[in-house]
UniProtKB/TrEMBL annotation:
Highest classification ranks of the organism: Eukaryota, Metazoa, Ecdysozoa, Arthropoda, Hexapoda
Protein name: Mini-chromosome maintenance complex-binding protein
Main location: nucleus
A biological-process GO annotation: DNA-templated DNA replication
Species this protein is from: Clastoptera arizonana
Pfam families named in the record: MCM_bind
């Protein structure tokens, strides 16, 4: 369910330094390349069928130290040299961290990791004009696939619990899913995922009081629960309501995302 909500997410407003509406997801406990070779590429191939725009970036050490993620101005040709993060709005960026091997990031690699971090956290990208950076607003939903918790920050970290028997037939499952996702169903799914994020949404006044009271309770139960954590819950609740065609936040959606958050945290503790 949370993966669908991430597909629906988008930055709809800026308030001070916060990019309201954005929600990045880190799926960890992804099968390693040695256990299931090509798993992340097959998963992305399936996801790319559903999404209007997407980009897959393997985060191998070689890639991080060599690829140009940040656009750079060439003053000799007076042209902007494109980078892989120069993506149009609502392009879903899928980062494959499972291919990251042991080694050292060089200066370019460190800059690339920093650029990814800024994109995820602030939805901003600093274009390299050599003598000065030019800050560009972005609206790029990010999905991180990793074995352990990602080195990059994310708004939501979910530990997968793969069924061992299902892993034995995962290739057949991917093939069956691709066979199933044909028009007109595929076109309907893509329209659904691309149109929902831009619908208006409101929180009823009576529910605002409930949310405030729940925030106080959450703080009492966990003193590390912050305003940022509340913001993520509100983003997910908004997306959950919109996913069902509801433009007013409901008690049901608010309670559902709180239950999802409890389950998410319990998986991390168990691990």
């Amino acid at each position: 369910m949370v993966l669908i909500l991430i597909f629906l997410s988008c930055r709809y407003k800026r308030q001070d330094m916060m990019a309201l509406g954005k929600c990045s997801l880190n799926l960890s406990n992804i099968p390693s390349p040695s256990l299931l070779p090509g798993y992340t590429k097959k998963l992305y191939s399936l996801l790319s069928e559903l999404l209007h725009k997407s980009h897959f970036l393997p985060m191998s050490l070689t890639n991080m130290n060599s690829v140009d993620l940040i656009p750079k101005k060439n003053y000799e040709t007076n042209k902007l040299i494109s980078g892989q993060l120069q993506l149009s709005n609502k392009t879903h960026l899928v980062l494959d961290e499972t291919c990251m091997e042991a080694g050292k990031l060089d200066e370019k690699g460190v800059r690339n990791i920093q650029a990814l971090g800024n994109l995820i956290t602030f939805q901003k990208l600093d274009y390299n004009f050599q003598f000065y950076p030019v800050e560009i607003d972005t609206n790029i939903p990010v999905l991180i696939l990793s074995e352990g918790k990602s080195m990059l920050n994310s708004d939501c970290h979910v530990v997968l619990q793969p069924d061992k028997m299902c892993l034995l037939t995962i290739n057949e499952t991917f093939e069956a899913a691709k066979h199933f996702m044909k028009d007109p169903l595929l076109s309907r799914l893509r329209f659904y995922l691309s149109s929902i994020p831009f619908k208006d949404h409101e929180i009823p006044s009576d529910l605002q009081k409930v949310i405030h009271e729940d925030f106080v309770k959450l703080r009492q139960n966990d003193n590390k629960f912050s305003g940022d954590d509340l913001h993520i819950l509100l983003v997910l609740a908004r997306l959950h309501s919109l996913s069902k065609g509801q433009q007013l936040l409901t008690h049901e959606s608010w309670q559902t995302v709180q239950d999802m958050e409890e389950q998410r945290k319990s998986r991390i503790i168990k691990k």
